Amino acid sequence: MESLFDLSLINSTLRMMAPLLLAGLGGAICARVGIFNVGLDGLMLMGAFLGIAANVLFENLILATLFAVIGTAIFSLILGYLIINLQANMIVVGIALNFLSIGITTFTLRTMFDVKGAYYDNEMAGLPVIHIPIIREIPIIGNIFSGQTPIVYLGILITILLFFFFRSTVLGSRYDAVGINLTAAKSQGIKVKAIQYQAIIISAVLCALGGVQLSLGQVTMFSENMTAGRGFIALVATMLGQSNPFGVFLSSGLFGFTEAISIRMQSMNIPTNFTLMLPYVITIVAMFIFKDKTQLNALKNNTGSTR
Amino acid sequence: MNKVKNSASKMMQPLLAIVVGLIVGAIAMVLAGESVLNTYHEMWKGAFGNFYFFTSTLERSIPIILAGLGVAFAFRAGFFNLGAEGQLVLGAVTTAIVVVYLPFTGVIAIIIAIFSGMVIAGLWSFFAGWMEQRFQINLLISTLLLNYIAVLFAGYLVSEPFRDTSSAGGVPQSVMINDAVKLPALFEGTNLHMGFIFAVVATIILAFIIKRTTFGYEVRMLGQNRFFAQYGGINRKKVMFTSMLISGMLAGLGGGVEVLGMHYRFIEGALTTPQFAWTGLMAALLANSNPIGTAVMAIFLAALDTGSLGVERNTDVPNAISDIIQAVLIIFISARFTFTFLKLKKKEGKKHGKSI
After folding, report:
1. How far is residue A61's CA from residue B121's CA, in Å, rounded to a whole number?
2. Residue B203, H or E segment
3. In this record, what's one Pfam family (chain B) (predicted)?
4. What DSSP assignment string belongs to A101-126?
5. Model confidence over B224-268: pLDDT tens digits?
6. Average pLDDT over residues B320-335
7. Which long-range contacts (CB under 8 A, 24 or more apart) does B95-99 make?
8. What angle do CA A282, A284, A287 make, to 5 degrees?
9. pTM
10. Could you tell me which of A97, A71, A107 has the C-alpha nearest to residue A208?
11. N or C: which end of chain A has fewer CB within 10 A?
12. How far apart are CA B74 and CA B246, in angstroms?
């Protein structure tokens, strides 16, 4: 059991949790403005695919990331138009968007790259690993925090920024106002639709970054449906984290930890089903204890019946 | 006359969605550099081209029909059950284990095994309903979470205690069932098994329950207007528990017949990878939760799946074309909900205007 727990486990937890954290923060923003975003998984998959595709085209990681972010943001406008302008059922549209994303990415992968299953190129560069100069030298903290991709650090930074955005900025309170009571917010002259569009686009940007971390950070390849439901896990992390940025950080940390430890246990031939199951059980138990008002509010806005 | 017109317009909308879906599919085919007519012809041949393909399509539709019926029934009562996947898998794994450990074989063993799968799946769905009723745990979220727990637990069952150890390595799976408990094929040399009959019978029974029984009336009332239904003395708790139980049992039946008729064992991922449960949900949505419509749509979606396999075999268009067409269908249908909703709102507004 010695090799099961050590400091590098926390290091790999950070790496595993980054996509979940970013997508989860995206889900949290949407929940704060009253949108229950089930399409996180599809947005993430689109980001992962565009990242790889653009990296093949431009052979430049910054351009690739940018391309993924912009492309996914445009893709998310479908979601925005249907939910915000046409008032379509959020869950139905979200599920459809996930299918559309699987369809488009797989279709393009097979027609453009002529491969089935997975695309990889040994020559292709992945996201670089950064060793932060001073922190690296500190014994324990260095082991934990150093040696991650830029997106992992960006994820931590965005968590902090979002926390202050919701706590201390006017725009942040407007977001909350829209989520708490749409009609009241409208009567106060807040541009509700614009804010909801912003939230969806920001969540798409975050999901795209999470997707790029998956396809260019953790590995350097794209495989069909490679998110494998991570967007839904991120959605659960949003709920467990009560749509609060730090809450989402902690809950996606929990999911990342169980994923990291399961990978180790697999190499030691211990069945991992129960460790992987743990976060969902914890989330259900947590729902008995806290009642997440934002999520429930978001669901109430949903046209069509949810309960 | 009005009634005929009404049902005709109800039929028109899904048809219009299908046309739009096929147009988008055609655009994708052009982008892939293939002739549209030729590709659709291949799709038709892959789905219905000969008797074998036709029966394969019907076979694929079995779990989709049953999961879709479950979703449709709960939706009729106003409950969004996203847990069909977990219920399907639990029904399948229970059936696969029970049938192997029963001391006897034959028809009775089949009935007991399928029924126990249905009961476990039904209770799993009931559990979500109970949490909603008793502790206000949102049904959408709980059914989604319970999926993961069910799928992981089923995976554990076949990778540890009930694993088939005769074949080394590979995907975790349970032991092969006895020949005497396999569901017979409907036609010699095809995959289509008895489960299809079950699916058709379930569709008819469900349509009858919803249309003609008191309970069905209560379900519809509750789904249309919760407050009116409660005012009218309908017991929400009772209707909810029953509809969630039936909803889960239908999905469980889908899993059970798939094990006994198709795979002859429970294979991890065999029911989740093809996304049967989510396709069933789409079928229910496309058909506006009408049982017979759900079954027809399930066969249509299954045909898109098997047809696109034919397309991939014979052209350069990948089978992901079916995912794109299906997604566009759903997006169009969900927008359609809105149009009718907006129309209703406008009408209401006009009425108010007159009365004032």
Report:
1. 47
2. helix B195-212
3. BPD_transp_2
4. HHHHHHHHHHHHS--SSEEE-TT---
5. 887 888 888 888 888 889 999 999 999 999 999 999 999 999 998
6. 84
7. B95/B255, B95/B256, B95/B259, B95/B260, B95/B266, B96/B158, B96/B174, B96/B177, B96/B259, B96/B265, B96/B266, B97/B157, B97/B162, B97/B174, B97/B266, B99/B177, B99/B178, B99/B181, B99/B259, B99/B260
8. 110
9. 0.85
10. A71
11. N
12. 8
Domains and their CATH numbers in chain A: 7-301 (1.10.3470)
What tokens were used for B102?
């029963």
- Amino acid, res. B255: G
Q: Which residue of A has its CA nearest to B157?
A: A273
Residues 6+ apart with CB under 8 A from B276: B63, B64, B67, B85, B88, B254
What does the DSSP assignment read for B66-127? Answer: HHHHHHHHHHHTT-----HHHHHHHHHHHHHHHHHHSS--SHHHHHHHHHHHHHHHHHHHHH
Question: Among A52, A138, A302, which residue's Cα sits nearest to residue B80?
Answer: A302
Query: Which chain A positions have a beta carbon within 8 Å of B226's beta carbon?
Result: 305
B193 torsion bin: left (phi>0), alpha (psi -120 to 50), beta (else): beta
Residue predicted with more confidence, A114 or A23? A23
For residues A291 and B136, the answer to whether their CB atoms sit within 8 Å is yes
Do A174 and A195 touch, CB atoms closer than 8 A? yes
What rounded mean pLDDT belongs to chain B? 86
CA proximity to B246, closest of B114, B89, B66, B111: B66
Number of alpha carbons in the 13 Å side-chain half-sphere of residue B342: 10
The token pair at B74 is 């709960």
**In this structure, what token pair is assigned to residue B73?**
């029934």
Token pair in block for residue A106: 């797989």
Terminal CA-to-CA distance of chain B, rounded, Å? 31
**Which of residues 326 through 345 in chain B touch A, CB cutoff 8 A?**
326-328, 330-331, 333-335, 337-338, 341-342
Alpha carbon distance B19, B32 (integer Å): 20
A130 DSSP β-pair partners: A148
Q: What is the pLDDT of residues B192-205, one digit of tens each?
A: 999 999 999 999 99
d(CA A90, CA B334): 9
CA distance B111 to A70: 55
B136, B149, B322: residue with CB nearest A277: B149
pLDDT band at B112 (very low <50, low <70, confident <90, very high): very high
pLDDT, tens only, A108-145: 888 888 888 788 877 777 788 777 777 667 777 777 77
Please indicate if any CB of chain B lies within 8 Å of the CB of A110: yes
Distance (Å, whole) CA A176 – CA B71: 33
Residue A120 dihedral angles phi and psi, to the nearest 5°: -150, 155
Using alpha carbons, list the distances in angstroms from residue B252 to B91, B111, B199. Answer: 4, 13, 12
Q: Are A103 and B324 inside 8 Å of each other by CB?
A: yes
Q: How far is A86 from chain B (nearest CA, A)?
A: 6
**DSSP secondary-structure letter at A129?**
P
Which stretch of DSSP H or E encloses residue B261?
none
Under an 8 A CB cutoff, do A100 and B324 touch? yes
Please compute, for residue B96, the number of CA atoms within 13 A of its CA located in the half-sphere on the CB side.
29
| DSSP structure class, residue B181 | G
d(CA B92, CA B183): 14
Which amino acid, residue B26? A
